[in-house]
Structures are given as C-alpha cells and as structure tokens.
Amino acid sequence: MIKKITCWVASIVLIAFSVGAFAQDYPNQPIRIIVPYTAGGSSDFVARTVATRMQENMNHPVVVENRPGGNAVIGTELVAKARPDGYTLLLGGSSVLSANPALYNNLPYDALKDFAPLTNAVVSPIVVVVHPSLPVNSIKELIAYAKANPGKLNYGSAGVGNTLHLAAEMFCLTTGTSMTHVPYKGASQALGDLLGGSIQVMFDLPQTPLSNIQAGKLKALAVTGEKRIAVMPDVPTMAEAGLPEYQFGTWIGLVAPAKTPPAIVSRLHKEMVKVLNQPEVKESFAKQVMEVKASESSEAFAQFIKSEIDRLRNLVQTANIKPE
Structural domain of residue 145, as residue ranges? Predict the structure, then answer.
C-alpha cells in the first residue's frame, strides 16, 4: 500500500513538473487568434489590433485567422475543441459567449465549460435611431408614441437573438411598450430599410448609422453607455434621457480552450491588458466608438460572462424569444 501511495505521489509531482516546464517554455510557436466572423468588422479590428501589439511586445508571432460561418458557431467550436496549450485563442463577444448560449440549447460548445476566459477587451454602447418621419425627438416621446400605438412601430435587427434584437426587447420590457421585430441577415440591410422608411426604429452600434445621423437622414435619441460618446456629443445617455434603469451594450473579449494551464492563462491576461492599456490603442478603439475595458483578472472575466448569460437568458425567457 505504501509503495502504491509513493508511486501515486510521484506521478502527481511529475505531472505538475511537466505542466510547469511547459508553461515556462511558452510561447515557442505562433499564437493564433480565431475570429468567427469575416474580415473587416469590429471584432476583426479588435483582434488585429491586439495581435499586432502583442507580437511587438512579446517579440513573437501572433496571427489572426477568420473562421466565419454558422452564426459564428464554426470558429467558436474550433477553439472550444482545440488543444489547451495557449496557441489557439478565440476573439468572442456578447453574441457568441452570452447571447447564443442564452438562446440556443443545442450549441456544439458550452460557453462556461469549454473556455478559459482571459480578459474583456472593449465595450461599445448602442444608439437608438429613428426615421425622421417619426414624430418623436426623445426617448420619452418614443415611449409615449409606442404606448399610444402598440405593435405599430417596426424595429429592425441583424437577426433573431442578435444583440441588437435583444437590446430592443430589453427596451420594450423595461418601458412596458410593444414594437414589432423585423429581422434581417445583417445590420446594414436593416439600416437600408430604416433609411427608406420601411421600419421606423433601430437599436444599433453607433458606427453603422453614424454618417446618416450626421447627415440628418436619421435621428439619434440616446446612447446606452454610461457616458456620451465623442462622435455624438449632443446625443444623451439613456440615464440622461430619463431611463436610468435601462442597461445594455456589447462587449468583445478573448478566451482560450478550457484546461489551458493557469500559468499560461495568467501570462496571456497580462500581455493582453498591457496592450489594451497603451494610449495609442485606446485612441484607435475610440475612433471606432469602442472603449477599452480590460478585466481585472481572468476570474473576473469568467464571472462577467456567467452574469451576462444569466441576464440574457432571463430576457429571452421573459420576452419569449424563439430561435429561427
């Protein structure tokens, strides 16, 4: 019995030593950041900014690979099933790590069990925009109009369960109003119909309708962040507009496969936060209407993801949102 215990202890020590040695040798091959969307979007911009700066700071290759498809499930699943060695990471956000898990029961990945959260990177507010023909000029007037015309206002989104859809449903639940959802394949298509007057309202990321707001083709009523944004200084926050209880925004962060050694998770968190805190990086994101908001620790980011899933799952159930 003593001999068996001694062998068991020796095995544990050997495993611990091997993991420690592996972590000390990290990194010794290129680090990949998988983006589950096509190149050119907000997530891709965040990934490439972080990768470029990490590569410079670490003097080590950090590359971005776009793996779009399946409502971002293809790229996300790839990372969930990747070897947990710190060389394959996921650039994921509120859609794939909180909205999808809240909406779908048959995802090929578990957002809580299959990933080792590293850090949040950026947050972005949502702007409430309406067609100029709509006789409202404030959030209070929009609420009053919607209550006087239940179900008659049409709002567009980038699809059922998309964060833009959930943002609008949260607004309806918070204000006791009813609007009709018109889902599209993308936000740009919804924006086109908003400009044409086929729909009257949209909850969108600021950068998408910005030029049309500045040109007077759309009216911006409020932004959902904690403070006003520089590109729309005259547009109030929801709190300033009289709706402080409404909280909604989007976020983008980075995760690794579950069971990635803690030492590597800690190293990646440290390197990423170092990048995100660089003034020129913050300025670059600000131009895209994104604010750097790095997590204090990987554990804090894990708790944030869990709280977001719980919050959105409650919204999905209360609003009776069904996936397509």
Answer: 127-223
